[in-house]
Amino acid sequence: MADDSSGPKVSGPAANALIYVTLILFLILGIFAGWRSHRNSGLFLKATRSQSKWSLGLNFLAINIGSGIFYSLPEVGTIAGITGVFAYAFGAAAPLFIFAIVGPMFRKHNTRQWSMTAFIMERYGRPMHIVYSVICTLFVGMYMVSELTTIYGVFELLTPLKPLPPMIIICVITTIYTAFRCVHPSKEDIERVGLVKPTKMGGELFVILTLAIGFSDMYHQGFWQRTFASRNDSDLRWATLIGFCLVFVVTTLIGMAGPLAAWAGTWSLESGVPGSSAFFTLVSSLAGWVSGLVLVTTVSLSCCAIDTCQTAMFASLYDLVEQKVNIWVVRATVILLNVPVIFLAMRAPDILQVYLMADLLAAATLMPVLFGLIKRLNFLHWTDAIVGCFGGIITVGIFGQIYLGNRHDGWRLLLIEGGLYTTDERVLGAFCLAPVGSVVFTFAFAYVRRAFTKLLGREQYLYVNTIRTDEDDEDNDSAKDRAIDQSSNDDTAHHQSPESDRDDQAKRRLAAASH
């Protein structure tokens, strides 16, 4: 997937120095942060109610920005032009507002809540908890594949190094510290290439990418960790607004590298170079120090993204075993899971396709989970939710079979083959119908289950939230204070001073004499 451009590359010694100095700095910073947390697993996982709006806003930017954006964002720009770039930027930024809405709902349900997996365990029970944790692990694994694929391509393109050793070292280091010439395009070139006018694909991407990224963010434990880390709901709302502005601006600027490469002539559809390499064709046409800067930036972003994914994977697995297994066993499991991730990344899949596969999985399975927050839907059982999750996946396959006219291609729509390069509406239909299908299957199965339960004369299932929240504790404390005050008043009334007793007796004798 590398481009064979003859542009300047970073020499071997310089590349090694840049890569490993950057990794050592990240290792030192990570270990220092871990030392400050005093190996507190709770702080390692959640840092509940500890972050301000500005800190969270920057964190929302950080979790949205990984090295994979240097491939996926410019690629969208080469497919759908400027409209596609703005669609991707909006789709990446707008879903943050979902957390400003849903986050307070989780806190209202349980003010001590800090993860989706913990909520699902309490609401739906162990079976659905297992399904969700497995999906989360697969989902985060896909994102790690995309990040490492980017690293593989960048090392192959900009350096003479073999990509595998640095990839392995990046995974090891992030695991360790998480445990503790200018281009001048002309006006004629821009008009010739196009990518400026609004396109049908660009309009569809506003729907596809907003749905895709919105559902996928809800499955990413990193977003939930940041949501529950907000000090209060007001800070969370401001943080999402700050994050929206930052993410929109940054992703737009990076995405414009795709159209800019086409206008400048460093990339074209006829060249045979994939659109995902458009950004690096620009870099290859610039001075050598720019390649070095991009190399450092890519390694840094990959470290940030991979350590977030590893932390999210750790949190999912730790919840999966109900926190009953030694924490180091779970960390060792995360290390072992890096092996297949690196293997898949070396096969250099299309990064945008990997993202879309993960997003489609999230879109097909998330709605039944969110229904657990709605009080009026307290009749939903864990079996309904599981059927709904699989129903969303089945819906995509059925739609693909009907739309494409054959079973083989229809069910391969789940793999999003061709990504966004297809000229029809198969991808748009898949992302629109996946959540609809999960909703239909959830309620259809719930209706059948309840009808069958009624037929057997058994009691219907109804969920009751028995969790004591912080508000309950405050109410109890207030009630205790009132009881103490009342008790004090009663004690005062029943334990008067001797002088008061003599005064009362004198008043009674005087009243009797007057009668």
UniProtKB/TrEMBL annotation:
Annotated region described as Disordered, given as residue ranges: 471-515
Residue ranges, compositional bias (Basic and acidic residues): 491-507
Transmembrane segments: 17-35, 56-73, 85-106, 127-144, 164-183, 236-258, 278-306, 327-346, 352-373, 385-404, 427-448
GO cellular component: plasma membrane
Main subcellular localisation: membrane
Topology within the bilayer: Multi-pass membrane protein
Matches recorded under Pfam families: SSF
Keywords, comma-separated and alphabetical: Membrane, Transmembrane, Transmembrane helix, Transport
GO molecular function, one term: spermidine transmembrane transporter activity
Compartmental location: Membrane
Annotated family: Belongs to the sodium:solute symporter (SSF) (TC 2.A.21) family.
Name this protein carries in UniProt: Na+/solute symporter
UniProt source species: Linderina pennispora
